[in-house]
Amino acid sequence: MIVQDIGPLARASWFPTYLALMGLIALNIRKFLSACLKFWPLLILWGLTIASISGSIDPDMTQRRVIALSFTFMFGFYLAIRAPLLDTLKIVGWAWATICVLNLLIIFGVPQAGIHSELHHGAWRGYLIEKNHLGGEMARANLLFLALIFLDGRTEKGKRKNIWWIGLGLSWLLILGSTSKTALIATTLPYIGVLFYQIAIRTPVLGLIAFWAGISLTGIAFSILTFFPEAVVALIGKDLTFTGRTDIWAIVIELINQNPLSGFGYGAFWVTENGPVSYIVDRLQWEVPTAHNSWLEIGLDLGYPGLILIICVTLFALLKAGVLATGKHGPFLFLFVIQMVMFSLSESLLMLQNTHASALFFFYISYILVAKRVSPESETPQLSAPYWAQPPRTTRKR
After folding, report:
1. Which pTM was predicted?
2. Can you tell me the distance from the alpha carbon of 2 to that of 281, in angstroms, rounded to the nearest whole number?
3. Cβ 73 vs Cβ 379: under 8 Å
């Protein structure tokens, strides 16, 4: 199935959101412009998507999608600079709680729409397209609620902590109902990371033990995956082709190598009928909708320059997030990005226009780029943003 464009009416529905975002940025224009100096790796990536219009196999489609992606970039930038991180996470948390409730209302109120009755019989999908989409969204929500339980609970004003516990429970319910094993793994592993972090911060000795235990477990897991790959993937209901994904990846890499410097234009590859996508369909004899891998998708769109750049940005963000974890930020920025990377290996969700996952990815990366380590002994407020992102302080006149 060739992925069709959403049409003019659906595109027009985003315009009010774009206008609201432009207004919010205008109100914080000084902070926004100051932060852009530190967002430069993402701005270069953004520039590559704009440059891809000229070499696109469908310039009109690429132009429209680049405009939409520009607002997704800006939304992530805005969330990173609007306020201290904890305040922004709370707002996102309330949004996720609302999404959880809406999905449950659809599932139990309109089961013929909210529950699969054909391909994945009995699996929950809520108001989303299919079960894996719901599972992925709820896995990201679950980690955010977990972060808020830890971080909001440390503040004197964390009086609404119960809502985060409720959100955590609802997200777990939706993950289990979706029956998505990928989402279950991506939800569970961050808990192990939090456990290691809680042990490591106790004393330097425990920190060293936790570090080496983590290295050892990673080595053991790699060895098991190397020597018993079929048994491992069978545990998550997959085979060694990951439900045909590896066949897609091999052909996608072949096509990337045909246009290594420019790609096929942002967002154009899968929607151009009689274009290179027909080669994949002919080879595999089924209508492939995406690359099912975010990194290969970016390679198709922007070639190796875009792919190498986003890999470098992500690795740098993980390294800096690890440094930030030694202060008051805790391990959650690191875990947010790690979870995104886990999903990106089997799904095309990074650098997509007008999507939750892509906006959150840009938000996390953007905040990490501008954040400074806050010492645990400092009196600076928990999860403080840089000085230009702090709300103005008022002084009492005597």
Report:
1. 0.84
2. 9
3. no
Please tell me the distance from the alpha carbon of residue 248 to that of residue 245, in angstroms, as a whole number.
Answer: 5
- Distance, in Å, from the CA atom of 263 to the CA atom of 54, rounded to the nearest integer, reads 11
Cα–Cα distance between 195 and 349 in angstroms, integer?
28
C-alpha gyration radius of the chain: 22
Q: How crowded is residue 306: how many other Cβ atoms within 10 Å of its Cβ?
A: 25
Compute the 3-state secondary structure of the chain and give helix, strand, coil in percent, each to the nearest 5: 65, 0, 35
Amino acid code (one letter) for 2: I
CA-wise closest residue to 390 among 30, 149, 71, 95: 30
Question: Identity (one letter) of the amino acid at 86?
Answer: L
Phi, psi of 13 (to 5 degrees): -65, -20
Report domain extents, the chain.
Answer: 8-374
Please tell me the distance from the alpha carbon of residue 292 to that of residue 343, in angstroms, as a whole number: 10
User: Rounded to whole angstroms, how far apart are CA atoms 346 and 352?
Assistant: 15
Which two tokens mark 363?
């938000």
Residue of 110, 79, 198, 208 lying closest to 149 (CA atoms):
198
**CA-CA distance, 74 to 35, in Å (whole number)?**
12
pLDDT tens for residues 361-391? 999 999 999 888 776 654 444 455 455 444 4
Q: Which residues are bridge partners to 124 per DSSP?
A: 115
Q: What is the distance between the alpha carbons of residues 307 and 380, in angstroms, rounded to a whole number?
A: 37
Closest to 381 measured CA to CA, from 152, 149, 150, 78: 152
Q: Hunting for tokens 């740098």 — which residue is that?
A: 316
Residue 154, classed as helix, strand or coil, is coil
- What's the distance, CA 69 to chain centroid? 14
Q: What are 173-220's pLDDT values in tens digits?
A: 999 999 888 889 999 999 988 888 888 777 767 667 766 676 777 677
Distance CA 159, CA 179 (A): 33
